[in-house]
Amino acid sequence: MAEISNSGLTLEQVLSAIPTSFVGDGAYMPVATLLSSYPAGAANLGKYGRVNDLWGSVRSVMTCEYDGSLYYWRPQRTDYATRNTSTSGSLSLTPLLTSPQLTLTGTLLGAMTITPSITNAWPGAQFEIINNGVLGLFGINVAGLLGGTLPLLGGGRRVLTAVNNGGTMAWTGA
Asked: Within 10 Å of residue 161's Cβ, how many Cβ atoms?
């Protein structure tokens, strides 16, 4: 390793001297436990939390962060995808609980509404929804967005992004 200027220490030695702070003594816990026992706030800013059920089944690490007006827990990875075979009704997308990449399959048997929740959201959180299913006589709408509701066509794709909207989380869609 290269030496850090004038200290005689390697980068590895410097980094190993920086304490890493985990909540819960670094033990894995459910996302719900992390959020309720260690709320996002100044006391946990910069700390890490290990979770064992991110998006339902992924073991990962999360970081407590602050964007100038909101504190939030953010996962270190966001590349998990699932398939959903829902064919009608309502589908709620909740950050940290619902996979960030969702592919819809099957034939719609009734109208469907997909709504992202601001619960657990952080600035830049995203959901990507791909509709590989067959609409038939029905449609899919994405609701709860700044600017209103957007349709999701057969073979279509929508990317929803969480934004800090004046100190409150909100979703935009494209």
From this structure: 18
Pairing of strands 71-75, 89-93: unpaired
pTM: 0.80
- Looking at residue 132, what is its pLDDT? 86
Please, what is the Cα angle at 164 between 35 and 61, to 5 degrees? 35
* R_g of the chain computed on alpha carbons: 20
DSSP β-bridge partners for residue 81: 101
Q: Where do runs of H (alpha helix) occur along the chain? A: 11-17, 31-37
φ, ψ dihedrals at 31, nearest 5°: -55, -45
Give how far Cα 21 sits from Cα of 8, 60, 61, 89, 122, Å. Answer: 26, 15, 12, 43, 21
Higher-pLDDT residue of 23, 19: 23
Predicted pLDDT at 1: 41
CB 63 within 8 A of CB 73: yes
